[in-house]
Amino acid sequence: MDLDAHFARWGRAKGWKPMDPNRLTEREYLLQFATRPGMFIGFTTVRGVTCFLDGYDYAARRAGGRGLDGFRDWLLTNHLRCESNFVWSGVIKQIAVPEWDFVTDLSPEQEVRILEVLFTLLDQFLAEREGPS
Questions:
Q1: In angstroms, what CA-CA distances link 64 with 53, 101, 117?
Q2: Where are the domains positioned within the chain?
Q3: Burial class of residue 68, CB neighbours in 10 A (0-12, 13-18, 19+)
């Protein structure tokens, strides 16, 4: 499965359009990433995407931004509703593929499901954090 093409189609279906990267909000920038992760990191995998987002988070905070601050707690409160010792990327996996044992390799279908859930929930989180426009 060509994940880059899948997520490009997926982003278009949601109505996400390319924009000038110099004029984007944090949410808009991460939506651009969600529609073409392979363009940003060279390949599309759960590991690659979560590594990019972790790096983005650290860089944003270092520059005085909010990054993904609060994302994990928001996930636990709004979507998992139970305790978890996992970082945000592990919580996403628990939400997206609750049947996965965290030991066996992810199937391509599970990778797609996790990334779709991640991008959707990240957008919801950032939209709520932005508040009314």
A1: 16, 37, 28
A2: 3-130
A3: buried
